[in-house]
Amino acid sequence: MWLLENSKPLRKVSELEINRKIPIDRYETELFPRFERLKSKIKALPNSPNLEEFFAIMQQDNEFYTRVMADEFAQPDIRELWRDYTGRRTAHMKTYGRK
Hints:
By secondary structure, this protein is mainly α. The chain has one domain. The chain is built from 6 helices and no strands. It has helices at 24-34, 39-43, 51-58, 62-69, 75-85, 91-96. The termini are far apart.
């Protein structure tokens, strides 16, 4: 694993700030497309992950881990990514045209 011995431990979803960090328009145009490459990793799992499992999986990605540790994401952002990558899309993303 790429984490170093002196790196911070993985966080839990409950430890994130509750207020949204990424505005909804930036979510659709910047955040969601940036992590779309991880969608195949999620789909390869035998079962769809719950929110806690999804967050742990996503933290194994270097960029995602760095942004979470920098406190750039909040619970709403993580929940939206989880819904969108596990097929539980929110209404505004369905109309956004992403598959």
